[in-house]
Amino acid sequence: MLKPSTRRAAVVGVLFVVFVALATSGCGDDTVDASKAEQGIESSQLSTSTTQITSATCPDDVKKEKGKTFTCDVKLSAGGKAQVTVTQQSDHNTFSYAFKSGSVVLPGTTVDKEVEQDLANAGVKDATVNCPDTVPVKPGTTVTCPITSSSGREATVTFTFSSSSGTVESSSVEE
Predict the structure, then answer these.
(1) Rounded to an integer, what distance in angstroms lies between the CA atom of residue 94 and that of residue 112?
(2) pLDDT tens for residues 66-75?
(3) What are the Cα distances from residue 100, in Å, to 1, 19, 61, 70, 164?
């Protein structure tokens, strides 16, 4: 039979082990599941032809709090990048997503293709657009890029983005 002091030590030891097991099992975890936020961003409606999301990275130390926001970094296809503002819709890892205004940077080649298509739709066939390597997306701001026509004539094209996701406002494309 164990002495009372030994029995107390054994009970305290067992209680400590149970406490540590509960604490490390995530029971009562009050932080956002970053991987769920990342998966949500990657499968969200934010991806478009110009902003195809390839991966997302979110902080793993965000406290759960309905209505609270945090920012995640995303990589876009062809080398673009952006930040996404994530809003917690509940305390149960449900979120809404929006591109952080002014954070989207598209590769020039992606913008070139979209503007070339808009020019072709407007009757300017076989024009080659040559925007800079990276194009920051700022809705309502005019962007100017050089173009070369199929006959070799050089000119410029101007356009604006209609959204923070990088959609070129087709009606704004002018040679």
Answers:
(1) 36
(2) 999 999 999 9
(3) 67, 41, 20, 10, 8
